[in-house]
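Narrative summary of target 7.
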Amino acid sequence: MTKALIIGGGIAGPVTAMALQKAGIESVVYEAYPHGADDVGAFLALFANGMDVLRTLEADQPVLDCSFAAERSEAYDKTGRFLGQGNMGGSHGVGPRTLSRAQLYRVLRDEAIRRGLRIEYGKRLITATSAAGGGVVAAFDDGSESEGELLIGADGAHSTVRGLIDAAAPQAQYTGNTMVCGYTRHSPVPTEPATYRIVYGRRVAFVYITDPDGQTWWFTNIPGPQRGNSEDGVTAAEYWQQQAIDCVAGDNTPAAEFIRSTDNVVAVTAYHLPKLPAWHTRNMIVVGDAAHAAIPQAGHGASMAMEDSVVLAQCLRDLPTIETAFAAYDRLRRPRVARAMVTSARMSKAATPAGRIPGLLRDHVLLKLLKGRTANTADWLTDHHIDWAAPVSVANHWHR
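Modeled conformation, tokenized:
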């Protein structure tokens, strides 16, 4: 039986392990940190396509149990004018589901372990070399080694595996924005259940949703230079809370009041990856953010990583060699990934207009698109289904 070494125990790592297990392939996940829950305070939305992947792996219920649904979105401009609404569900199932990153890491890890999969913590990859028999040997900073037939880098935007595949590979770059989020039980306006509200302000977009327990979750992306953990003696939380308030000041919206009423503000530096020429070698490959970290405006990083996991497992299941499987995976995933990255970059520009005129143009376009009708956002991005039973062949381009 083929054995895969998976580097990274965040989101893509455990999902890849479960997909490989379904394909009859053994794997071990190696996580650099002593535990798997970083970015504890940040949250994300797992869209219909991501939930569809988990349903394929029969791993969706743990996520459903610790998340809440959003059925629609509403858009407003800087004056509070209602622009329109959209349906956020996908035709292949529920979505999006909102939950913290820590919750998602935990339930995916626990589900993988429940299935008998191994996750080893405190294993930071240093290097990987080809084994005498054609496999790969991974060396970790604790002095240990592990050997397998292939190595999968699910180690995020700052991937070590990416550099082992191509020493000249681009590094993750700061997007120019820091995502600031928080949670508050003090709402200055009535909130609608299961509804994401997007306020397009003069400088930034402000997004919020209220959970079934009455707590409002909000986030915004603050443009500016990358900052450290403190600024002139002010804590990071205090600094970013004030930055967020300043960015929405002057808008006739409830955004500033939401931010002021929040006790715990979390800031997460946003990175993206320029187009990566090489995703794989003969026995190493990268998936998820290690291969294609996008500007996070579209919020599809987790869902796209899960799609990678299942497609890679299908290719390894159906094709005769690891090399042909990797080549097929590359061919099948690149067009969709490229389109998602372009879409997210365009959404980021709309969310943070560079001046008054671009902002007015954006609002005009949004009003024209949304006013007086219900938009259906179950499009090519969210309404994507991977048929696990569909065979992969060398010649097949697998159009869906």
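The longest strand covers residues 173-184.
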